[in-house]
Write a structure and sequence with these properties.
Helix content: 55-70%
Bound molecules: iron/sulfur cluster
Radius of gyration: 19 Å
Number of strands: 0
Oligomer: single chain
Structural class: mainly alpha
CATH topology of the largest domain: Endonuclease III, domain 1
Number of domains: 2
CATH class of the largest domain: Mainly Alpha
CATH architecture of the largest domain: Orthogonal Bundle
Length: 226
């Protein structure tokens, strides 16, 4: 399986080029973006981040000192904005209470322990926490999302019903334990999911993975429409 996963990555890299994720200028912007991006398109997150920037609220210190309602009004384009404002506040509380606001100290923590701590910050799910660990902390933690589950189950490598953790272990057991690889691999999966491996009707003919995809091969005999 290691060979196939590496092959998939090289095909995506050849098709799309290095994705240079995460879109964000600072670690704090990455962390804030990781919380805001859940269940909403990235362009909405960009609008919310611009709003926070214009109001000097694009740091965890500023968020720590701001009202939840004020944050919520600025991140309104991201849906579930009241919940997300609370999550931002709770994460900043955690950072200041536990690490005196020092991100270096937080990311110096062992990755398993820090993951466990972040998952105990109210409302943060595994995808958000792992995005923070990988993209802000440069920790070798594979991020799983709906695109990952859909694409790799269609390829025939996994089962979409597997848990988040089972998916994560699948990748981490078969790939070299490198943050740089995990960083771009996840970004490539998102690019593929948006461009070709769409939820309802995947566009298989131009997809760079079509020659090794079980879903694509199984529909060819019936006359592929994708
Ligand atoms: S060939 Fe089709 S189903 Fe397979 S990964 Fe590409 S878009 Fe998805």
């Amino acid at each position: 399986m290691q060979h196939q996963l590496v092959e998939v990555y090289h095909k995506l890299l050849a098709a799309f080029g290095h994705q240079r994720w995460w879109p964000g200028e600072t670690r704090e912007e990455v962390i804030i973006g990781a919380i805001l991006t859940q269940n909403v398109a990235w362009r909405n997150v960009e609008t919310a981040i611009d709003n926070l920037r214009q109001h000097n609220l694009l740091t965890l210190k500023a968020i720590n000192e701001a009202d939840v309602s004020g944050i919520a009004s600025l991140i309104r384009p991201t849906r579930f904005y009241n919940q997300k404002a609370l999550k931002l506040k709770r994460l900043s509380d955690f950072l200041f209470d536990r690490y005196q606001g020092d991100l270096d100290a937080m990311f110096a923590e062992g990755v398993d322990r820090l993951r466990h701590e972040l998952l105990n910050v109210g409302g943060l799910g595994e995808e958000t926490v792992d995005s923070i660990l990988l993209y802000a902390g440069n920790k070798a933690v594979f991020v799983v999302d709906a695109y990952t589950k859909r694409t790799f189950s269609r390829l025939g490598f996994t089962n979409e019903k597997w848990s988040y953790r089972a998916y994560q272990q699948f990748f981490m057991q078969h790939l070299d334990n490198e943050a740089e690889l995990y960083n771009d691999y996840h970004a490539q999966i998102v690019r593929l999911g948006r461009a070709f491996c769409k939820k309802n009707v995947p566009e298989c003919t131009p997809c760079p993975l079509s020659d090794l995809c079980l879903y694509c091969m199984s529909c060819l005999p019936q006359g592929c429409s994708g």
